[in-house]
Amino acid sequence: MKTAIYPGSFDPFTNGHNDILNRSLKIFDKVTIAVVKNSSKNYFFSLEERVAMINELFVGHENIECIGLDSKLTVDLADELGAKAIIRGLRAVSDFEYEFQIASINRSQNSVVESVFFTPDEKLSFISSSMVKELASYKGNISKFVHPNIEKSLKSKLES
Fold this sequence. Notes:
It is globular and about 45 Å long. 31% of the residues are buried. The chain is α/β, with parallel strands linked by helices. 42% of the residues lie in helices and 18% in strands. The protein starts with a strand and ends with a helix. The chain has a single domain, classed as 3-Layer(aba) Sandwich (Rossmann fold).
């Protein structure tokens, strides 16, 4: 079975993230979404909330699982799960330099795990979690950018 890990903050999980996931499932039999916790970032949703929201989206999909990752390197998780690839999305050329650095660091830690890059559909290439949160904070229409369950969670959190 060809397995891969799709790491990211996913704060929140957008339709762009989902597009990358669907593209990766054309190549990999199973994808583990690894929701990361980066101590240098301030998140809108907690790690537990992000994992729960994503798991809710993929109930019944045996080839997709979502877990939290806050205490080990992504390449170590890949090794633990038997995954041979780390999935990364590239929205624009500006993403490439950062992603190239991450891929190089990961390779220095585990040369067996490959980084695989996907680009989203052009209609989704401008979407970012940050923009979705900003738009939602001003009561803008985010229905084109996130699943209805995510939209509901965002609105609920903003109202509290």
